[in-house]
Amino acid sequence: MIMLFGVLTLLGIVWPKVGFVGAGLVFLMTIGTLSFLVTTPECWVPDLGGPEHGFPLLSGAGRLVIKDVCILAGAVVVAADSAQRILDKRR
Q1: Is 22 within 8 Å of 9 (Cβ atoms)?
Q2: Rounded Cα gap, residues 3 and 9, in angstroms
Q3: Is the pLDDT higher at 50 or at 26?
Q4: Residue 47: left (phi > 0), alpha (psi -120 to 50), or beta?
Q5: What does the DSSP 8-state code read for residue 91?
């Protein structure tokens, strides 16, 4: 599914409506993945008796999830660009 969303987003270079749909799907996917930061306790450094644990210290799983912030930003940029191109064609 991730590859399909990426291809749809890439096709937005030629067809802005397809790119807008692809970016929307990527946006939804990343919001779902980022929700793990709230719902999964393994994303934060566990209390092992030391002074540094919990929020804002991310464990390995948390750092893996946080990459989706960059993907989310890219999806927003592509969606905005595609929407602008769709509106320009209508004028």
Answers
A1: yes
A2: 10
A3: 26
A4: beta
A5: -
Residue in 91, 89, 49, 41 with CA at minimum distance from that of residue 65: 41
Contacts of 27 (CB under 8 A, 6+ apart): 72, 75, 76, 79
List the structure tokens of 67: 């990459």
Q: How far is CA 4 from the centre of its chain?
A: 15
Angle ∠(75,77,81) on CA atoms, nearest 5: 115
Residues 6+ apart with CB under 8 A from 39: none
CA distance 91 to 82: 15
**Per-residue pLDDT tens digits for 34-81:** 887 778 777 777 777 777 777 677 777 777 778 888 999 999 999 999
Residue 15 banded pLDDT, cuts 50, 70, 90: very high
Structure tokens at 33: 């993945």
